[in-house]
Design goal:
The protein is mostly helical.
Length: 66
């Protein structure tokens, strides 16, 4: 038997087992309880960069009185 035949046989056996287990279950598994939709959280306010502060003008020094 070559490799492809062995792989096909293994896949066939797995499919048969899965189908058999599904068909023999008396009733479908109970559906998970419906979870309420998540409360929509408000999107965070976009952070705005503060306006650039203007640098103060250099203080002018008065010349010493003579």
């Amino acid at each position: 038997m070559n490799r492809n035949t062995i792989i096909a046989a293994v896949v066939a056996v797995i499919v048969v087992i899965v189908l058999w287990s599904v068909m023999r279950s008396p009733e479908p598994a109970p559906a998970p309880p419906a979870t309420p939709p998540a409360a929509s959280t408000p999107a965070p306010a976009p952070t705005t960069t503060p306006p650039a502060t203007t640098t103060p003008a250099p203080a002018t020094t008065t010349p010493p009185a003579n």
